[in-house]
Amino acid sequence: KQEVTQIPAALSVPEGENLVLNCSFTDSAIYNLQWFRQDPGKGLTSLLLIQSSQREQTSGRLNASLDKSSGRSTLYIAASQPGDSATYLCVVGSSNTGKLIFGQGTTLQVKP
Amino acid sequence: DGGITQSPKYLFRKEGQNVTLSCEQNLNHDAMYWYRQDPGQGLRLIYYSQIVNDFQKGDIAEGYSVSREKKESFPLTVTSAQKNPTAFYLCASSIMNTGELFFGEGSRLTVL
Q1: Nearest to B85 by CA among B32, B23, B16
Q2: Whole-angstrom distance, CA of residue B80 vs CA of residue B74
Q3: CA-based diameter of chain A, in Å?
Q4: Which of A32, A103, A105 is opposite residue B98, by nearest beta carbon?
Q5: Could B103 and A45 be called an inter-chain contact, meaning their C-beta atoms sit closer than 8 Å?
Q6: Which pLDDT value is given to residue B106?
Q7: How far does B24 lie from chain A, in Å, by closest CA?
Q8: Nearest 5 degrees, angle CA B42-CA B46-CA B50?
Q9: Is A102 touching B (CB cutoff 8 A)?
Q10: Which of A100, A104, A77, A76 is nearest to A89 (CA)?
C-alpha cells in the first residue's frame, strides 16, 4: 500500500532563507508527483508537476526534484518570503492502483 | 478564465437536511473528484468520476451521493445519513494524459 509522508509537519524560518520540504513515498511505482500549496480556508494551488520520467521541475523560486528509486521528492524554495507562508502538500499518483495519495502537508511560516 | 468553481463557499445546515454542493469546471477535463478535509487530517476521497454518467466510490462515500450528467458538472449531495458532515469540501479535476490535478476554492459546510 502506497504511503506518503511529509516531514516536518511544521517549519518556521526567517525571511530570505533557502529551505527544503520533503516528501517520501513507500512504493516507487508512481506515474507522477505533484506539489501544491494551500492557504488557510482556501483550495489547493498547483505548484509543480513531475512526471515519472522526469527528475525535476522548476518554476520561479521553486524547484522540485524526484528520485523514484529512493522514494523521495524535495521542494526547494529559494529566498523565502512571508508570502510563502502556507501549507505545502505533495500528491503521488500510484501506477499500480491509479489512485492519488496525499501527504499530510508541511505548514511553513516565514517570519519577516 | 478556465478553472473550477465551487458554490456556495459557506453553507449552514440543520441536522437531518440534505444539502448539495456545486462543482463546475470549464477546463474540458474528463475526470472529476470530491475530497473532504478535516482539521489536522489529510484529504480523503469521497467520490470520483472519469467519464460522464459514470462515477465510483472513494474511501469515505457513505452518506454522500453524486451525479455526472454533464462533463462540466459534478455535484455532491451530503445526505442526512452522513454522521459528521461538518467539514471543508474540495472539488478537483484532472487532465487524463498527464494526470495533473486542479482544485476549486472549496465549500465549508457547518451543521448546526
Answers
A1: B16
A2: 20
A3: 44
A4: A32
A5: yes
A6: 96
A7: 14
A8: 115
A9: yes
A10: A104
Q: State mean pLDDT over A38-62.
A: 96
Give the residue with greater pLDDT, A65 vs A1.
A65
pLDDT of B1 reads 65
pLDDT given for residue B29 in this prediction: 95
Contact flag A105-B102 (C-beta cutoff 8 Å): no
d(Cα B61, Cα A69) in Å, to the nearest integer? 34
Q: How close are the terminal C-alpha atoms of chain A, in Å?
A: 41
Q: Which residues, given as ranges, of chain B have pLDDT below 50?
A: none
pLDDT given for residue A1 in this prediction: 87
Q: In the block, which residue shows the cell 478556465?
A: B2
Contact (Cβ atoms closer than 8 angstroms) between residue B84 and residue B96: no
C-alpha cell at B97: 494524459
Nearest partner of B109 among B4, B5, B3, B6, judged by Cα: B6
> Distance (Å) from the C-alpha of residue A81 to the closest C-alpha of chain B?
23
> Which letter does DSSP use for residue B22 in this model?
E
Chain position carrying cell 462515477: B55
Q: Is B30 helix (H, G, I), strand (E, B) or coil?
A: coil
Q: Is the peptide bond between A112 and the residue preceding it cis, with omega within 30 degrees of 0?
A: no
**Res B40: pLDDT:** 79
> Which residues are registered as beta bridge partners of A48?
A35
Tens-place pLDDT, residues A53-82: 999 999 999 999 999 999 999 999 999 999
Mean of the per-residue pLDDT values for chain A? Answer: 96
How confident is residue A48, by pLDDT bands cut at 50, 70 and 90? very high
